[in-house]
Design goal:
This protein is mainly beta. It is built from 1 helix and 6 strands; from the N terminus they run ββββαββ.
Length: about 110
Amino acid sequence: MTIPKKSRRKISVDDATYYWTRGRNRRAENGWITVQREPGTGSLLRIDLYGIPNPVDITEGIRFAIANGWKSSKSEQMFYLGFTDQPGTERFVVRSATSADYWREFAD
């Protein structure tokens, strides 16, 4: 699976180049981003977000995913992260494909 060329953006993390794109309605404040190391190769990373993504969130998400088992260069199943940004917690948690959006647990 490949991230579409039309809307993908490039980001460098620890001397590696990744590409990312937003999912859902790009005008919505809540959504996800999908990350891939090289277009068309390796596994995808999906980060469910609450709010507009910024480069710091994406960089930290990629580092967290790698530290928690995401193999960006191998063709494996998609790796899922939830974004919490709650005081006293990790900013990200590993999720599953069937988990509800993690931020919904904290939204008012």
